[in-house]
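Write out this protein's structure.
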Amino acid sequence: MIEIVCARELGETAKKRISEIFVDAFGHHLSFFSKDRNKLAKALEHMFVLDVFHVAVIDGEIAGMAACTGNDLHSVKHDRNELRKHFGIYKGTIANVVFKREFQKPIKVGKRTALIKFFATDSRFRGQGVARAIMNHLMDLPQYDAYILEVADTNTRAIRMYEKLGFREFERFKQKYSRLSGVNYMIYMKYTKGREEGEAGGG
């Protein structure tokens, strides 16, 4: 059985699993800073804002996650000194600049619209309906009528899944630090309640 809860309900220890899943899904974009996934997970663990992460729990273990935020509420807040401690002064300083630009840029998504970020399923639990369960949970949140997703152009598997869920691309932006992140464009996709529910699926 899949249970969807706010990560805050699980306490600070949830950050470790969220970071591990984040690195499992997106770590290849951060290989400039370290190719060691355990090191990456430890370096990033501090920055996840539990209040906005919704996680799927299977048999007591976090199996998937997504951050869902409104205007000017960020899902990650990194600490420069923490990044330097794990990556060293040079790479930690670069990580601070890149993360500030990519993760903490102004959020303006419109009234009753949510921005969904870091939608990921642990590789061991893929194919078990985790993504669909998380998305159904988010779609039931009464404070939102529409949802916007941000996804890297290189993440073709995720793009296909989002399309099956009813999301459609409406904008893309060229990334200035593509050599560091491995991402050429960030693609923005939108879903509005009541319009394409018949197409929802995936997992």
